[in-house]
Each structure stands twice: as C-alpha cells, then as structure tokens.
Amino acid sequence: MHFIHACKNEAQRIGQRDLAIAHEKLPNLHLHLCFEQPDSSEQLGRDYDSAGLLNLKALAAQLPLQDGVFYLCGPIGFM
Questions:
Q1: Second label for 71, Cα 20 to 30 Å away, from 25, 55, 56, 60?
Q2: CA neighbours within 13 Å on the CB side: how many for 5?
Q3: Are 61 and 2 in contact (CB under 8 A)?
Q4: How many of the other CB atoms lie within 10 Å of CB of 62?
Q5: pLDDT (tens digit per residue) in 54-78
C-alpha cells in the first residue's frame, strides 16, 4: 500500500501522528511526501521525499501504475 501526500511544506502537512502510527503497524505501507515549496529548514530525505509539484514521472517511480487501484482526493484545481 502506498500513501502519497503532496502539500506546500511541513506546515501544511496533515495527519503526521496518525501516519507514523500506521507506518509502524503496517509493514507494507510506503509513505511518500512531496513538498511543493519546502521551507529552508526542511531537508530532502529527512522531512520530505521529493520537491516540486507531484507528477506522473514521480509517481511511476513509486507505484505499479499498470496494475493498481487509486484513490485521489483534494481540491479540483489540485487534481
């Protein structure tokens, strides 16, 4: 199972505690955080996994795109 979360930076990240608990309990859960505009104090590899807008190329590196079920949520402009 893959959980990909995209937001501007750490200040806008949601559900941190719940995701950390789920990650500990579910060994097949893979988390990927994409920050569009990381803060200068946020470090790639420590605080987030990729920078900029999330795109198909970034997703292809993380997911089996040919065979999967996908759920997307967010505002229409984000999709």
A1: 25
A2: 16
A3: no
A4: 15
A5: 877 777 777 766 777 777 777 666 6
Q: Other C-beta atoms within 10 Å of 63: how many?
A: 16
Q: Which amino acid is at 63?
A: L
Under DSSP, is residue 10 helix (H, G, I), strand (E, B) or coil? helix
Round to whole Å and give the CA distance between 55 and 42.
21
The helix (H) or strand (E) run that includes residue 58 is helix 56-62
Measured in residues, the chain has a length of 79
CA atoms within 13 A on the CB side of 68: 13
pTM of the model: 0.76
Query: Could you tell me the CA-to-CA distances from 42 to 9, 32, 46 in Å, in that order?
Result: 8, 15, 8
